[in-house]
Structures are given as structure tokens and as C-alpha cells.
Amino acid sequence: MFTxxxxxxxxxxxxxxxxxxxxxxxxxxxxxxxxxxxDGLLRAADAAEIDHLVVVQASTVYGFDNTYVAxxxxxxxxxxxxxxxVDFLSPKALDDLSHWIDERGFSGVRIRAADGTTAVPTPGxxxxxxxxxxxxxxxxxxRVPVCIxxxxxxxxxxxxxxxxxxxxxxxxxxxxxxELAPDAAPYxxxxxxxxxxxxxxxxIKLTPPALLRAQRxxxxxxxxxxxxxEKFGAxxxxxxxxxxxxxxSLAELAELVRAQLPSTLxxxxxxxxxxxxxxxxYGKS
Length: 285
Hints:
The protein is α/β, with parallel strands linked by helices. The chain is 39% helix and 13% strand.
């Protein structure tokens, strides 16, 4: 079974070559307590028997300077894919996207529409800030997958964007902080817009932060995971360890997510969630 961890981070010990410049001016605690460089990540992946890694830019350490991840993509092209961070409000956002994607080899981009803390500022007035229009047009035309860190309350805005940009492909980081009430839809929809799962262009990323939130607020993550897989389909679900931002070894984090998957899944569905979905999404098939 081909396995892809779609949410990892790396921190370099070489602070001269790769100086910290975190968004919001405050470096994340995990990056100071558990900094893991590319060699440590690869060792952890080998121990966990992970075939491919998607490295997400650690913007709470490096902001919009994706150089450290980019340099590792050059070294380990067969083992890594990269998700960069770009200032969607910048006048040179399109130039930055072209640089990181076309010249430095990134396969996706990430935007924080909301964060779990106040340490990272959210962009403008939200996902539909009119200054982002050229970025959404670029991502839609190029069909570059965009990871969005958001809450369920932002789903109506996202639904409108998906309707407006027919090529837009979205991955909800940490499952998009869905509604957890048993009788609630995970994500509310905008009036006149299809539900997110009906677009066929929204993918759900199951991670330890999503799992732990569900356990904390709803008592268990199993019903949530089952609902999301049923609604979106295994071919639109992937997983990420959030290593090393989440505490624990990569192998432990992978098993944490795996153990919450419904027992009713067949082999094909498990293979899709383990790596098949991500393999196609990031062009590794």
C-alpha cells in the first residue's frame, strides 16, 4: 500500500541560511520544543513506513520565505512534495506563486483563513477579500490545490468561491474544523450554492488536531471521520500526521489517525485514504 503523509513540517538548525521570520512575529512553541530538520523527518518517515511526504511550509517559523522547503524538494524530488505559503494580498502574489510553483517545484499553496490562536493574523477580511481575486483566478486556471485552514463557519464563503472559480481545488487542513453536533451538517453552505461535498473539488485532510478536537468536544472522533468519509468519499479524503507540530513520533501520529477510521472501509477505500487520493492530487500517480 502506497502511503502519503500530507501534512509535515521541517525546521532547519541553520539559522544563518534560513532565518526565522514568523507570521505575526511570534514563533510557534512546537518549532522551538520539537524542531525537526529534513533528515529527522526522513528518518521518522522510514520508521513509520511512509512512502511519500508532503511538506507544508512552517509559516509560524519562516513566514512566506519557502526557501528551506524548496531546497529539500530539489534534493529529494522522488520523496517529497511541497505546499508553499504566499501572501495572497500582496501586489506581487502572482509573481510569488509563479516563482515557488514553476521555478522551485511546489505542488500546492496554503492560506490561513482562520487560526486556532491569535498569533497568526488572518488575511484581509477573509477568503473573499477582493484583493485575492487574481490569486483565485490563477489557482483555478492552473488547478493548483490550495490548502485552507479555516472553520466550518467559513464554508459558505468557500462555497461561493468554488462556484465562481470552476477549476479551484481545495484541501481542508485539519478537516476544516467541522461542526461536531451529530445532527448538524459538517459545513454550512451558502444560499444557492452546492454543499462542499457536491462540488467534487473539496478534499478533507484528517489530522491529529482534528481528531483530538473531536475527542475533546464530542467524546470521539470516529463518528466525525465516518461522516466525512461517507459525505465526501474516500477518493476525497487524505490524512496528515502534523509531525512534528503534534507531539509524538510520526509512527504514533499515523496510527492515531488510522485507528479512528471506520472498520467498515474496504481495502480500496483504505488505500485511497492512506495515499491514493494524495498521490493523484499531487501528481504522483
